[in-house]
Specification:
12% strand, five-stranded parallel sheet, Oxidized Rhodanese, domain 1, alpha/beta, 2 domains
């Protein structure tokens, strides 16, 4: 055997020994989901249980509405790690395995599921952006019976390098050492829509609402007004459009993405990864955490008007009371008519 033939015979062995593990693509399509299924990947449906049971990808597991189940309802931060270990473990969602996460088309909570798994150690986790609608559009079957995986004992180790803390953001934003994307609505960014103790935005941040990543950013609004029959507009925009959307940013500079509580930010962070941004962090506490630091500087700063909110709530309560009174009168009238024998005046 000559040297060349010998080296060629060693090539498969050397490739296997020195191969660098490949990370999963952040965002995949229906064909990639099918291929992942064939490899034995876990499919995780993060929607609420009623939606899951209405129809889900065959074999997909559920813990219910992941955004509510895994987060504190007040702070919207992660619940205790021990609880998360139990919840994911009982469902068989093991971050050590390949996982595909999905919800409805474009739903940022699918990306929150991916972010959560990454934060707790997952190396191969992707989002099926087109979700259950994309699966059905591809002519693929759905199931309504709950799927079960064997429970696993998990010991999760957070990866703090994937997130930005409030202290990091406050100090580094002042120094201009990081580029910051605000994935909230323009109203939130400008302080007109206040959803925390105060409104406004982090100084120097660039407002690119997460819906701008879609083919039609107005899809949700159009659906609520019944202007479109479905949510196909929430499909991911073409790569060229996404590159143009973030062209003002440096893909080699550290990028922090935030929103209200980190959910919408997780979607934009995944999109940036697909574009080659290699230093992306999610500010998990996001504006809820930043706004609570009253010494943290803010642009377009406005404060939550408790009096105005109480006035609106009181007005709504009066309308509810009036509606209940009208319903009561109608019910009494109907009962009286039903009790009166036919042909008689009661």
């Amino acid at each position: 055997m000559n040297l060349r033939t010998f080296l060629q015979s060693l090539l498969p062995l050397l490739t296997a020994v020195f191969a660098i593990p490949t990370l999963a693509s952040p965002i995949i399509d229906a064909a990639a989901v099918k291929a992942a299924q064939a490899r034995g990947a876990i499919i995780w449906d993060v929607r609420a249980t009623p939606l899951y049971r209405k129809g889900h990808i065959p074999g997909a597991v559920s813990i219910g509405d992941a955004g509510n189940v895994l987060r504190n309802p007040v702070t919207e931060d992660f619940i205790e790690i021990a609880q998360i270990e139990k919840i994911l473990g009982n469902a068989g969602v093991d971050p050590a395995r390949e996982v595909i996460v999905y919800a409805d088309r474009g739903n940022p909570y699918a990306y929150f599921g991916r972010f959560a798994l990454q934060y707790f150690g997952a190396q191969k986790v992707s989002v099926f952006h087109d979700g259950i609608e994309g699966w059905q559009d591809a002519g693929l079957p759905v199931d309504t019976a709950d799927a079960k995986l064997p429970a696993v004992a998990l010991k999760l180790s957070p990866r703090p390098e994937l997130i930005a803390s409030t202290e990091d953001v406050v100090s580094r934003a002042k120094a201009g050492a990081v580029q910051i994307i605000d994935a909230r609505t323009a109203g939130e960014f400008l302080g007109n829509d206040v959803r925390a103790i105060r409104g406004g935005h982090i100084p120097g941040s660039v407002n690119i609402p997460y819906e701008q990543n879609w083919k039609d950013p107005e899809t949700n609004a159009k659906m609520s007004r019944r202007q479109v029959p479905d949510n196909k507009g929430a499909g991911l925009a073409p790569a060229d459009a996404l590159r143009n959307l973030y062209a003002r940013l440096d893909p080699n500079k550290e990028t922090v993405v935030y929103c209200q509580s980190g959910v919408r930010a997780a979607e934009t962070a995944a999109v940036l990864e697909t574009l080659g941004f290699n230093k992306v962090k999610v500010y998990d506490s996001s504006w809820l955490g930043y706004a609570a630091r009253l010494d943290a500087p803010a642009e377009r700063e406005t404060f939550f008007n408790v009096g105005a909110m109480n006035g609106r709530l009181a007005s709504m309560q009066r309308k509810v009371d009036e509606l209940e009174r009208m319903i009561g009168e109608l019910h009494s009238s109907h009962t009286a008519k039903a009790a009166c024998p036919a042909g008689k005046v009661c």
